[in-house]
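Annotated sample (chain length 147).
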Amino acid sequence: MTSDVTPPEDEAALVYGAYRSRLLNPEAIRAHAESRLSDIRASELSAYRLEGIVPQGPKRRGPWSSFDWVFTRPDGVLLVLSEWDFVADGGGVLALREDMNMSVRGHPARFQLRSTPSGKRVSELSWASRQKLYSLKVWDEVGPDAR
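Output written by the structure step:
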């Protein structure tokens, strides 16, 4: 017996496919942003290809206070840096000390390594500053390096 069911795509392909039609360049984002975009020029992300930024929130045309930066490494691996200005939205972040296993520039952080349903590894680092909540996902197994 044969099956017409095809296996689901890998999570990275699904994420990129969902973002592809909504990617904007930084200038278009800044024109309708409620908060400033993070400056990534001094980070290692600046060495990767910026595919674009996806604004998040209930309003399609802004103003936005949450963004997903979409990058690809030279080897094609997907990276997504999410930032949310919770202060601009009147929100807050609760972090449990027991869950934190790293720090990023003096801020408690959590590093996790998980597997997608297809068996690929995803590394995620999450932390909060006094203004924003950040999450960096890499669809690859990377070490918990503070960079």
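Annotation: Helices lie at 11-20, 26-31.
Annotation: The two ends are 51 Å apart (CA to CA).
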